[in-house]
Amino acid sequence: MLAAERRDHLLDLLARRGKIVAKEVAAELRISEDSVRRDLRDLASEGLCQRVYGGALPVSPAVVDYGARQSVAPDGKRKVAAVAAGLVRPGGTVILDGGTTALAVAHALPRDLACTVITHSPPIAVALLDHPQAEVFMLGGRLFKHSAVACGAAAVEATQNVSADLFLLGVTGVHPEAGLTTGDAEDAAMKRALAARAADTYVLASSEKIGTASRFRVLPWEGITGLVTDRAPDDPVIEQLTESGVDVLPAG
């Protein structure tokens, strides 16, 4: 099999199986594991897969910059946001993560809802300016422009002075094996710090993120309360998550 044919075969396997195990593919094609790993490195360098130990997973389309993400699956994000906004109770305190799905949540909150919103995202704080009953607390730090959020040591330290009933967490990848992932190490650390300050953590996961992975793990599955997604309940990945005990809130 020529290199171009192997490349197409690997991409087809990734689409059909949701993962590639280098050892298995090498046996199927009767080539060396080194050849498969080399092909996967090439695909990863082009942004076509996310390499993991022993193989590769589908790469998340949500790792592009903030501006570009606003045009990715807007309908799905609105559906997820509508359900997630319903988790915010009158008089409650919510930590709202950065990202375009979290921004959709801010827009979905009722304008007359009396609540406290803690966020490290300037766009989300601005979106809540016309919510007269919402108290907004900003967490500061170094601005991570890719996602329009504060991060770094100062931001993580600031999280230690807050607590909340609920954290609405945004990630770029949701995979049964890889867990909840994002594309930046400092952003992942900030998300973990925020999750530690909330009684409950729900993941905002529009369908394009399901079954994909990014480079850095945010939390293991046991670290969250539930997952809000517009992916169909009978989707194989959602079924696998549900069978493993993850509470999935449908946003279809």
Feature tags:
alpha/beta, elongated, 252 residues, 15 strands, seven-stranded parallel beta sheet
Major sheet summary line: 7 strands, parallel
Shape: elongated
What is the typical, i.e. mean, pLDDT? 91
What is the C-alpha radius of gyration, as a whole number of Å?
19 Å
With helices defined by DSSP (H or I, 4 residues minimum), what is the helix count? 10
Measure the end-to-end span. 42 Å
Write the layout of secondary structure elements.
Elements lengths: L2 H15 L2 E2 H8 L3 H13 L4 E3 L2 E3 L8 H4 L4 H12 L7 E4 L3 H9 L6 E5 L2 H6 L6 E5 L3 E3 L4 E3 L1 H7 L4 E7 L2 E3 L3 E4 L2 H11 L2 E8 L10 E4 L6 E4 L6 H8 L4 E3 L2
Parallel strand pairs: 4-5, 4-9, 5-6, 9-12, 12-14, 14-15
Antiparallel strand pairs: 1-3, 2-3, 7-8, 10-11, 11-13
Helix pairs in contact: 1-3, 2-3, 5-6
In short:
The protein is of the alpha/beta class and 252 residues long.
Write up this protein:
The protein has a seven-stranded parallel sheet, sandwiched between helices. The protein has a three-stranded antiparallel sheet with strand order 1-3-2. It has a three-stranded antiparallel sheet with strand order 10-11-13. The chain has ten helices and 15 strands. It has 252 residues and is of the alpha/beta class. Helix 1 packs across helix 3, helix 2 crosses helix 3 and helix 5 crosses helix 6. It is elongated, with a radius of gyration of 19 Å. Helix content is 37%, strand content 24%.
